[in-house]
Amino acid sequence: MPSPPPGMSDRNFQAALRELEAVVGREWLFTSDEDVLLYRDGYSPLWGEPEERVASAAVAPSSVEQVQAIVKVANQYGLPLYPISTGRNLTYGGSAPAYSGSVVLDLKRMNRILDVSERDKTCLVEPGVSYFDLYRHLRTSNIRLWIDTADPGWGGLMGNALDRGGGYTDVEFRDHFDAHCGMEIVLPNGELVRTGMGASPQAKTWQLFKYGLGPWVDGIFSQSNFGIVTKMGFWLMEEPEAALQVSITVPKRRDVVPLVDVLHSLMCAHTIPSQVTVASPLMNGSGDTELVRLRGSGGASDDDWDRFAAAQGRPFWSASFAYYGPRRVLDAQWEHTKDRLAGIAGIAFRETASYTFPLTDVEVEAVPDKARFGIPSLNLFGSRNAPGAQPSEGHLDFSPMIAPHGEDLIALSDVTGKIYADMGLTPPFVGGLMFHPRTMICFHAVPTYRNAADNQRTRRLFETLVRSCTDLGWPIYRIHAHFHALGMQMFGWNGGALHRLHETLKDAIDPNGIVSPGRYDIWPRRLRGSRA
Amino acid sequence: MVSRRAFVEGGLGLAAGLAAWPAHATRARREDTFGSTETVTPAPLRVAVVDRGVAGSAAFAAAARARGLRVFEFTSDVAQVWMRELEPRLRLGALEILGYSSPATSFCLELLARDFGAGAAQPLGVSTWLIATNPARRAPLAPLSQQQG
Predict the structure, then answer these.
(1) Residue A264's closest CA among A184, A197, A340, A355?
(2) Residue of B52, B77, B81 to mutate, testing the A interface (most A Cβ within 10 Å of its Cβ)
(3) How many of the other CB atoms lie within 10 Å of CB of A4?
(4) Which chain A positions have a beta carbon within 8 Å of B79's beta carbon?
(5) CA-based angle A356:A362:A366, to the nearest 5?
(6) Quick one: which of A173, A178, A311, A397 has the most CB atoms within 10 Å?
(7) How far apart are CA A39 and CA A107, in angstroms?
(8) Mean pLDDT on B89-116
């Protein structure tokens, strides 16, 4: 028997569940422990502790009308709902609610691909459409459009876009929220709203022009709790004639400064279209004791590092990216890139893969870096292959955002390395991924466990990383649900004015506080005492 | 060429896996709106997924085929097999997936198959595991034929 949300009587909770059952049918209301535990965050940093966020039940509607009816029930009883699309947002909270006791509103059954226009290169989808679904649809329908997939690619377009995830192809598509065009939203009062051109009933441009007329409100439905998005349009990439994937390496630590400057310049000039990953073959190495010492020192000199790199015989930095287009064009782009970077002593250029599209199924299978070519993949989980790795244990993504400056990447690497070393931990390497055209996100995985002692240390470490990096000008762009309050504290300019604006909007749009209370630390008035 | 050692490992893996594979549950007790009833359900489809990168995989795949199982092979990344072969079958009805792979693959498939009523991946031996949907189980994407009593 599920427990009611805090402050709600069991009698009212049971009555609300009966009404939800009447809306969706008995088959689609989940109340047994066995079912509800499936919505647990498998990567929770609070696994098994009293504060772990867990759902009280789950309900899976199949239509917008059912979502509206569920919202009506929730308003009547003050029942908190936690909408999820495909619920794969692992490392940022998974499908577990931000507020314990919420009923998960599982939108997976709403999984229709409503429209794909090959001519306009757009699609319109429901929340449950996964990257797998849309990719398969495009392949089997012989539609020569690409999706831009998150990596791993098992999530859904809408959920990832609404949490502002990123991908790997052309700049127009890989900022997933920016690539959307038009939404339909069930507001907390049950009213249905379409944004952009969708508000004009006869418009033929809902998926073509974002703004419509008047204020553009789409942004308030991302990383928020102001409504339940039931449809979203996206722009899709036309399959190019060809693609060239390349890798560049440079030998010395400070070489990353001109390397990133030039790559950023070429991205802004649209010479390099794809996401650029800056990594370090040297620092990604094994647990070499000298490497661990240098990483943990928090300020080893460039000479120390360069001597170590020379002794190891490995380049310090690498950058990998891809060009898309007619073969003659991408060959010229690659030549121009090499010309611009030729001044770095010891630089090496390598073509790692070359494709002509469309690919056969066999060729698709053989692509090692699938996400760069719009192919959803699960290869990222290869790290779980390590001997002794426990598949049930996960991690948090720590994802500070920096300017695309090599000096900042070095400084961030020093700072995080020292934080780990001071806690007696082996520092991981911090790389930089240029999802967005003018910033770099420096992800690294902070492991979570199935025991409280290790997780307490993880939480201390994570909070230290967030605070220290924010102090140095590198706040996070996205954060696990347990740390939403911490994250918003890092955006506290002018006494938290932005957060007050969020909650002012919440009070106006969701006065009963039924949609995702606490998500991104936005609490309804009645629950503000619950703030962590 | 499959080495003798790999062949033995793969064959042993399959033998262990098949030995531990539970018998088909052809009857599933479930309740419907009108009270308890016992419903005969069709035997689930059985398939095998094999990671070519795991030692002994060729022998495992060969032994599975010899036992009449449809075998889907992949190298490290099971996503294409999921999209093309496993998910479409799960949408049609009950499925039992015998796997020979790294823990990464069983982790991914376990989470993906949950939406179709599968439980946790059951380890059957070194590199061998089983994921099975339960016809009596409710799940967001489980086929309607399983859901309606």
Answers:
(1) A340
(2) B77
(3) 20
(4) 132, 153-154, 370, 376-379
(5) 75
(6) A173
(7) 13
(8) 94
- The DSSP bridge pattern shows strands B95-100 and B128-132 to be antiparallel
Q: Which residue do the tokens 């098992």 mark?
A: A154
CA distances from A242 to A227, A263, A362 (A): 41, 21, 17
pLDDT of residue B6: 45
Using a 10 angstrom Cβ sphere, with 0-12 exposed, 13-18 middle and 19 or more buried, the burial of residue A222 is middle
B114 CB-near residues (< 8 Å, 6+ apart): A38, B139
Between strands B70-74 and A348-356, the pairing is unpaired
CB A138 within 8 A of CB A117: no
- Asked if B28 reaches chain A (Cβ–Cβ under 8 Å), the answer is no
Torsion of CA B96, B98, B102, B105, to 10 degrees: -20
Q: Is the pLDDT of residue A430 over 80?
A: no
- Residue listed under structure tokens 């287009």: A325
Contact predicate A488/A520, CB 8 Å: yes
Residue of chain B whose alpha carbon sits nearest to that of A383: B104
Tokens representing B78 are: 């099971």
What is the per-residue pLDDT for A390? Answer: 52
* ipTM attached to this prediction: 0.92
Q: Touching check for B120 and chain A: CB below 8 Å?
A: no
C-beta atoms of A370 and B106 within 8 A: no
Contact A43, A94 (CB under 8 A): yes
How far is residue A228's CA from residue A59's CA, in Å, rounded to a whole number? 14
Tokens at A172, concatenated: 């127009």
CB count within 10 Å of CB A478 equals: 19
Which residue of A106, A136, A378 is in closest CB contact with B140? A106
pLDDT band at B36 (very low <50, low <70, confident <90, very high): very low
A397: tokens are 């993504």
0.95 surpassed by pTM: no
* Cα–Cα distance for residue pair B61/A197, rounded to 1 Å: 54
SS3 B89: helix
- CA–CA dist A193, A211 (Å, integer): 14
Interchain contact A94–B (C-beta under 8 A): no
- Report how far apart the first and last C-alpha atoms of chain B are (Å, whole number): 50
- Residue B118 DSSP class: B
Extract the tokens encoding A369: 């870096």
Within 10 angstroms of residue A248's Cβ, the number of other Cβ atoms is 23
Alpha helices (H) along A238-288: 256-268
Question: Which backbone phi and psi does A175 adopt, to 5 degrees?
Answer: -90, 100
pLDDT bracket for residue A151 (50, 70, 90): very high
Tokens of B35: 């009270």
Q: What is the DSSP letter of A328?
A: H
Task: Give me A25's structure tokens.
Answer: 């049918």
Does the bond joining A152 to the residue before it have cis omega, within 30 degrees of 0?
yes
| CA neighbours closer than 13 Å in the CB half-sphere of residue A428 | 15
CB under 8 Å to A252, separation ≥6 — which residues?
A: A302, A305, A306, A309, A316, A346
Of A330, A397, A361, A325, the residue nearest A150 (C-alpha): A397
* Strand-pair partners of B70: B47
- Residues of B (65-84) whose Cβ lies below 8 Å from A: 74-80, 82-84
